[in-house]
Amino acid sequence: LELARLGVVEFGFRLDAEYGIGVRVGLHCAPEAHHTIGSFPTGTVRVSPGWFTTAEEIEALLAAIHTLTVA
Q1: What is the spatial distance between Cα 51 and Cα 7, in angstroms, rounded to a whole number?
Q2: Measured CA distances, 29 to 37, 39, 40, 52, 69 (Å)
Q3: Which of 35, 31, 60 is nearest to 23 (CA)?
Q4: Is 21 exposed, middle or buried (0-12, 13-18, 19+ CB in 10 A)?
Q5: Which DSSP helix (H) or strand (E) runs through 4?
Q6: Cα–Cα distance, 61 to 41 (Å, whole number)
Q7: CB atoms within 10 A of CB 11
Q8: Dist CA 69 CA 8 (whole Å)
Q9: Under 8 Å CB-to-CB from 38, ≥6 apart: which residues?
Q10: Nearest partner of 7 among 44, 61, 62, judged by Cα
């Protein structure tokens, strides 16, 4: 998913500020991997669902991503 309109930092900030969804943004201690996949120097947005993440929380994340990328 290309986030050129917002950038990864703003995208992560807005997920947190507007939806209460925490994500990690940046190079994640792996700049060489980002060179390989073409996301250097901006990095990526990383979502880390866990064992107790509910289907409703995943749906809320997907709705927030849709809103931020389509709007």
Answers
A1: 29
A2: 14, 13, 12, 26, 26
A3: 60
A4: middle
A5: none
A6: 25
A7: 21
A8: 12
A9: none
A10: 44
**CA–CA separation, 15 vs 31, rounded Å?**
23
First to last CA, the chain: 15
Sequence-ordered list of residues with C-beta below 8 angstroms from that of 67, at least 6 positions apart, any chain: none
Token look-up 């900030």 returns 13
Determine the Cα–Cα distance for residues 9 and 44; give it in Å rounded to an integer. 9
Can you give the pLDDT of all 71 residues of the chain as single tens digits? Answer: 666 678 899 999 999 999 999 999 988 888 888 899 988 888 889 999 999 999 999 999 999 999 998 86
For the chain, how many helices (H) and strands (E)? 3, 2
Q: Give the distance from CA 31 to its chain's centroid.
A: 17
Residue whose token pair is 């107790």: 52
